[in-house]
Here is the input.
Amino acid sequence: TCCALRCTASAAFALSDAGEVHLWAPGALSWERLPLLVDVEVIACGEAHSLALTRDGDVFAWGRGADGQLGRPPQEEATAAPHRVEALQGQGVVDLACGAAHSAFVTAGGALLTDGLHRRGEQHVGVDLLPRVFLARFDGASWSTVGNFDLGKDP
Here is the structure.
């Protein structure tokens, strides 16, 4: 049975009680199971990207990653198959969420990690003139930048 339903601008994802993720995309005649995702606890969707958190604490991402919202440097080509977000291995992620072009992850220790587009201060580490992709951490009192990828173009 379905226990969660999330949507991007062009697709719907259903999470079953068994931890399976199913996709309904334009032109589909039925729900399609995403085979790489097992034991999923949480799914989240942005405008054109999606995230899944497994019971083991692994984070998977797929979709459009041009703004770095997939947990790795930006890439123009969308990723259809979910990939493990290596940068979050061992971070103890317990929850996640998506914005239009950024993602957020909460750890068991209460830290908030973000990645993706940083044009309008989405990641709370200040606004600058060049779009950048940050991995930022909030420790409950202040924000710090863990890393960034310069997109090298004017907004």
The longest strand covers residues 75-84. The two ends are 44 Å apart (CA to CA).
